[in-house]
Amino acid sequence: MSDAPLQPNLIEASGLVFTATAISGPVNVLRGVDLAVSAGEAVGIVGPSGSGKTSLLMLLAGLERPTAGRLRVAGRDLAALDEDALARFRRDEVGIVFQAFHLVPTMTALENVAIPLEFAGRRDAFDRAEAALKEVGLGHRLTHYPGQLSGGEQQRAALARAVVAEPRLILADEPTGNLDRATGAAVMDLLFGLRALLGTTLLLITHDPALAERCGRQVRIEDGRIVSDTPAMRMAAE
Fold this sequence. Notes:
The protein is built from 7 helices and 10 strands. It is an alpha/beta fold.
């Protein structure tokens, strides 16, 4: 038996319910989700479109509030935090990578990546942003604006911004959805490499089975509920 200590849970969700408001009336998006994720885990979130995957990530990031249930992330009860505290939580603990790059078009790549560090009052914000951009292969694009970057370069900049503050949790929602296969594969290699380097917990929403298999665990959501939670199937290395 292994004597290695168990890692504490970074995410603890119990009976998580999220009801959205639509023109037609309330929509039950999440219907009682129980999920525990240990620090340092990589979890692939899979399931059909509209099943609640993105809503779950929005709750974990504190961008939406649960309708019912309990949710603790990085030791914080998110329901007990006001909007300012949630903003600080995201700044300090969470890096987010969306399918759309969400870069500020009037800022250079360097300025975009420095944003979370500037919000945190870091005097070395631009030095660290430059190092992060070099890490993702954009050291030659520091002063370029998003409109001057290719799709793959924009997602690399978004990835650098997500990890520059060394967050404990990275949430990635279909990060290769707007990229061609080769570019997407390169971006995902960077994401998994940075995650391993930092020891960061990763939750990755993907429709790509190969990407889900790169995570140590797969959680499948259907109709707002977790229907399976299993280790990812891995191909033999031999």
